[in-house]
Write a structure and sequence with these properties.
By secondary structure, this protein is of the alpha+beta class. The chain folds into two domains: 14-52, Arc Repressor Mutant (Orthogonal Bundle), CATH 1.10.1220; 57-137, Alpha-Beta Plaits (2-Layer Sandwich), CATH 3.30.70.1150. It has four helices and four strands; from the N terminus they run H-H-E-H-E-E-H-E. The protein has helices at residues 16-29, 34-53, 74-84, 112-123, and strands spanning 58-68, 89-96, 101-111, 128-137. Strands 2-3-1-4 form a four-stranded antiparallel β-sheet, covered by helices on one side. Ni(2+) binds at residues 83, 94, 96, 102.
């Protein structure tokens, strides 16, 4: 047996609010089970990771990030990471979504590997809910 027909069982621990939100989404989308929703989410994650792995050459793009403003030490860490990448960060916009949650949009331009590296550094921080890197190649149109 190969591919999707060979199943493995796993156990995971999730915060209740995350699982409740996930259950709401899979019900709205019409999944028949949590397993089906989780498989779809993992496929999406793999596709996004593979797409990000292909970010090469001179690129321009945007990093969108949502994070917990009250997570201890996070603001300082995010600022330090951004200062390390000042050579590729063109501008940033910070928005207070709620008292705890913030949305940050960072315009970037440079080598795709550097853009991917900053996105992954930001993503790895505790208190960061999501990071999305979207880029396009920098080249003259023909």
């Amino acid at each position: 047996m190969t591919g999707d027909s060979e199943l493995s069982r796993i156990g995971i621990s999730l915060p209740k609010n995350l699982l409740d939100t996930f259950d709401d989404i899979i019900n709205m989308r019409g999944y028949s089970s949590r397993s089906e929703g989780i498989r779809d989410a993992i496929r999406s994650y793999i596709t996004y990771y593979q797409w990000m792995s292909d970010v090469k050459g001179e690129r321009q793009g945007v990093i969108t990030m949502v994070y917990d403003h009250e997570h201890r030490g996070l603001i300082q860490t995010l600022t330090e990471i951004q200062h390390e990448y000042m050579n590729v960060i063109q501008a940033s916009l910070h928005s207070h979504v709620t008292h705890e949650r913030c949305l940050e949009v960072i315009l970037v331009r440079g080598d795709g590997g550097n853009l991917k590296a900053i996105a992954e550094r930001l993503m790895a921080q505790k208190g960061v809910e999501s990071v999305k890197l979207t880029t396009i190649p920098v080249k003259d149109r023909v």
